[in-house]
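Structure first, sequence second, as always.
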């Protein structure tokens, strides 16, 4: 079974070599109790360590079950110790921080035995040595004899073939020694026991064979194997085949020992628990770097969340804006800067002019271009990536949102607001310029209108506003009223909406500048939510401001009666909600006091496009519907006589009426017939009897009276009212006269009016005079728009990173189209705050870099403490190696310890950091109004703990490597 062939063992000490064993050859039986006797230094323990695989022989051979160990690798020796050898040491060599049961189970753990079987076998082994009731005690709670019994149970639990006992009774009293020897003798019936002892009496009493050593040689063997040969000696084994080698390799792999990481964690955890104070202090020292980084990250995260909110809010107010007509602001500013520097290329004895205005005008002309928004809109609509990058893409149109309120005193225009003009603060030209500036004016806080389109992103609106009454609008004819954070409304808004009387401010600026004493209502007015939610407005399409008269369309905004009817027929708009900005919102997406949905504008566009005046202008693109004159073009301009003049809208109407001549005679005749003038010719198709019957229906006493009544009535009559069938604008006399006419007379009158209108229009169109307007201006005046061709596009990025990606999308579009279709855009946010995030990130990175130094230093400290732990647990290393633990297993034990320390340090650091964020937030709230809330992101906390574990693991690699390389024999001798 076990055979030693000429075993020699030499130790190199300095420059000399010491021979511990000098050619020892011994054969052992499968079950016997062998005692090895000899003086100290004779090589007994060295021989025992070589047999147990703890030490390597210098030469010779150790055969196990007929197999040579010359080619054994470390893993083979580990497996041999774990499965074939059981050690019983003089000093017990139990792991102090493990229970009795855990000490016995440890060898089985290395063998890969399941937990349930491991527990069962360990309990059985302890019961076999009489310790079945001491399972959960620690070694320091037991006597010497009990500890040695635990050591024997540990040696037996893996059912080894050989039990090696090194002075098993050396530390025991006589009574206990006898008990241990009796136990070993009973075990020797089934196993080979080799005991090294200095006590010849015990050896003689209990051993079946005594071998004596002196100076590294066997000098006596009481019962050598060759004297008791029963069976013939087996023939030498033949050279193993490849199949035999493969089978042997497979068997060794099966018997290979390995400590799983959980076992290593358990060993290290128990060891660390015996030194709680030191472990806690070490972990706290390691957590200092984590605390520093975590606090920086928490503040940085709070700032970043605030910046993200600011970005989202700001970008909802400052979008990427693309207008139909645009100019490069950057180039204009560069030109102005160059002009400010001046040329300086002249003598300094005179004063010279600087061509600043000319350069600026030239630059403006060169940099101004018309964007093809129809094509670009289609490109944006087809781009699938844009949705994730934007809060909204808003298309605006030239269609004017005309909003009015009705009251007993009449109608008042709410939008576009004329309040500043009425006050005398701005002229109509300035108001128009501000209106044309549109969204830019709103963005810079200079807009005059209190109505603005809401962003089509309910989630963003929910973040920026609180609904304090009512709800958000759901239909095109529903709007919301926006108050400020103090539940207040600017009095400018109140005057503009008609909640305060705006007439009290008429001319107030001019009067103040003239030195007049004026007074302004300074009382604070209070409105209930219900009162504000009861507000109603009317939206009137621009074409409804015009009425056709004498073949042309006349602006009726100056006619109070007409406007009342137009407003009454307008679309009613209801206030359905009141919004207040969220206290943490840094900006707001609704620039006005009234927010309306985008579909109100699409509804209005549809109404304008389907109006009669717009259809007429589209059908007659060469004729000005407001004057009846032709538009001046390059072609007809050449044919114009040098004396002919182009007339304005107002003079054209006057001159066209003055040019009416003989062509109106036919109309006069018809008018006379309608009025009952007997001198007039009877209309074609009407008999004299019919004509007389018509005259009698009028109720006049004679024909002359009827003629006078008819001509007087028609003289100031609104003929277009008769054509349209709307008699509400007529006087009572005119209504009475119309009522006196038969259906035939009324039809005749309408025919007469149509012919007159067509004649007037034809005379104006062919008068040789031209309109001062053009087709595009007329369509713009009427508010005509095409949904597919917006007047401007506002792109609201989610954040700055998204904005950069959107700019890339625009650049990709520009690369894919010709020069005439390239898009110019204005990035207001980019001009204002392009690098704020980069600066904050850079500051954060620098601070983290500084704090990371402390983290590295603390990790090095943990590595040093782990090395100290290696020195403290040297004997444990020897114990583990003696029961079959590999070098890798030893490394794993100490790696597990650094992992535990690193995890505790990281977790402790995160917990302390979370607690510290409470006073930090209180200090921030006390020192500033900025809503920054320091908080550690969960992902960052997990990453920091992982970093702590990784750094301590790296720091512990060297100590664990040192531990793995320790000689188990020397380690077992360490106290």
């Amino acid at each position: 079974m076990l055979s030693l062939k000429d075993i020699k063992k030499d130790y190199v000490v300095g420059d000399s070599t010491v021979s511990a064993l000098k050619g020892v050859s011994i054969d052992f039986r499968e079950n016997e109790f062998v005692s090895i006797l000899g003086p100290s230094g004779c090589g007994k323990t060295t021989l025992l360590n070589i047999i147990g695989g703890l030490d390597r022989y210098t030469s010779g051979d150790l055969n196990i079950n007929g197999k040579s160990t010359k080619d054994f690798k470390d893993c083979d020796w580990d497996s041999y110790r774990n499965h074939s050898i059981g050690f019983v040491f003089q000093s017990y060599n139990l792991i102090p921080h493990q229970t009795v049961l855990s000490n016995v189970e440890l060898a089985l753990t290395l063998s890969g035995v399941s937990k349930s079987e491991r527990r069962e076998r360990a309990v059985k082994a302890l019961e076999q040595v009489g310790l079945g009731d001491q399972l959960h005690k620690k070694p320091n709670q037991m006597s010497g004899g009990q500890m040695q019994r635990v050591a024997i149970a540990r040696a037996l639990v893996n059912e080894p073939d050989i039990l090696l006992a090194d002075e098993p009774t050396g530390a025991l009293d006589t009574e206990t020694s006898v008990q241990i020897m009796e136990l070993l003798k009973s075990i020797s019936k089934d196993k080979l026991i080799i005991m090294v002892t200095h006590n010849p009496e015990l050896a003689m009493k209990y051993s079946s064979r005594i071998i004596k050593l002196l100076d590294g040689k066997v000098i006596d063997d009481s019962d050598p194997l060759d004297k008791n040969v029963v069976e013939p000696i087996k023939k030498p084994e033949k050279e193993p085949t490849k199949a035999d080698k493969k089978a042997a390799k497979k068997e060794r792999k099966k018997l290979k020992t390995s400590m799983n990481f959980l076992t290593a964690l358990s060993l290290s955890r128990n060891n660390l628990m015996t030194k709680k104070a030191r472990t806690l202090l070490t972990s706290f020292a390691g957590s200092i770097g984590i605390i520093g980084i975590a606090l920086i990250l928490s503040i940085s995260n709070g700032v970043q969340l605030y910046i993200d909110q600011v970005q989202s809010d700001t970008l909802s107010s400052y979008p990427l804006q693309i207008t139909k007509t645009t100019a490069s602001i950057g180039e204009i500013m560069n030109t102005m800067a160059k002009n400010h520097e001046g040329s300086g290329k002249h003598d300094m004895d005179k004063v010279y002019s600087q061509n600043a205005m000319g350069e600026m005008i030239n630059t403006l002309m060169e940099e101004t271009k018309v964007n093809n928004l129809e094509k670009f809109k289609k490109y944006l609509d087809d781009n699938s990536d844009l949705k994730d990058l934007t809060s909204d893409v808003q298309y605006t149109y030239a269609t004017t949102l005309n909003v009015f309120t009705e009251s007993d005193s009449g109608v008042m225009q709410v939008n576009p607001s004329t309040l500043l003009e009425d006050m005398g603060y701005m002229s109509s030209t300035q108001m128009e310029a501000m209106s044309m500036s549109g969204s830019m004016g709103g963005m810079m806080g200079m807009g005059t209108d209190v109505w603005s389109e809401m962003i089509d992103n309910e989630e963003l609106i929910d973040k920026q506003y609180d609904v304090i009454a009512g709800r958000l609008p759901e239909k095109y004819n529903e709007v919301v009223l926006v108050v400020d954070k103090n539940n207040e409304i600017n009095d400018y808004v109140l005057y503009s909406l008609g909640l305060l009387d705006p007439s009290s401010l008429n001319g107030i600026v001019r009067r103040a500048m003239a030195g007049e004493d004026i007074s302004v209502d300074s009382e604070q007015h209070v409105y209930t939510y219900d009162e504000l939610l009861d507000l109603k407005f009317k939206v009137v399409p621009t074409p409804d401001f015009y009425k056709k008269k004498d073949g042309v369309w006349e602006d009726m905004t100056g006619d109070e009666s007409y406007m009342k009817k137009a407003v009454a027929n307008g679309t009613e708009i209801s206030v359905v909600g009141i919004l207040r900005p969220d206290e943490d919102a840094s900006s707001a997406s609704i620039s006005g006091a009234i927010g309306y949905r985008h579909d109100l504008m699409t509804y209005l566009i549809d109404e304008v496009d389907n109006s009669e005046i717009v259809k007429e202008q589209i059908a007659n693109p060469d004729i000005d519907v407001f004057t009846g004159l032709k538009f001046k073009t390059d072609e007809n301009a050449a044919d114009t006589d040098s004396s002919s003049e182009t007339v304005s809208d107002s003079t054209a109407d006057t001159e066209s009426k003055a040019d009416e001549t003989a062509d109106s005679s036919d109309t006069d005749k018809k008018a006379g017939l309608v009025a009952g003038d007997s001198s007039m010719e009877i209309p074609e198709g009407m008999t004299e009897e019919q004509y007389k019957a018509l005259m009698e229906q009028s109720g006049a006493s004679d024909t002359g009276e009827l003629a006078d009544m008819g001509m007087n009535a028609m003289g100031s009559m609104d003929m277009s009212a008769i054509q349209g069938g709307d008699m509400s604008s007529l006087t009572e006399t005119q209504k009475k006269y119309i009522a006196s006419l038969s259906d035939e007379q009324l039809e005749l009158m309408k025919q007469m009016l149509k012919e007159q209108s067509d004649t007037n229009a034809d005379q104006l169109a062919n008068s040789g005079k031209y309109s001062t307007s053009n087709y595009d201006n007329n369509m713009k005046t009427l508010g005509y728009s095409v949904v597919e061709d917006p007047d401007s596009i506002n792109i609201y990025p989610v954040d700055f990173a998204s904005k950069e990606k959107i700019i890339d999308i625009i650049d990709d579009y520009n690369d894919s189209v010709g020069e005439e279709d390239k898009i110019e855009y204005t990035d207001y946010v980019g001009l204002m705050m392009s690098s704020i995030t980069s600066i904050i990130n850079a500051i954060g990175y620098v601070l983290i870099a500084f704090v990371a130094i402390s983290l590295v230093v603390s990790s090095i400290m943990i590595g040093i403490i782990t090395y100290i732990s290696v020195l403290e647990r040297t004997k444990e290393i020897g114990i583990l190696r003696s029961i079959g633990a590999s070098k890798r297993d030893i490394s794993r034990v100490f790696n597990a310890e650094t992992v535990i320390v690193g995890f505790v340090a990281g977790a402790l650091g995160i917990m302390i950091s979370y607690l510290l964020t409470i006073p930090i937030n209180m200090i921030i709230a006390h020192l500033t109004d900025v809503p920054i809330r320091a908080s550690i992101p969960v992902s960052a906390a997990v990453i920091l703990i992982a970093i702590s574990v990784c750094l301590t693991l790296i720091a512990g690699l060297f100590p664990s490597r040192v531990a793995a390389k320790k000689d188990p024999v020397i380690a077992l001798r360490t106290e």
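Margin note: The chain is about 50% helix and 15% strand.
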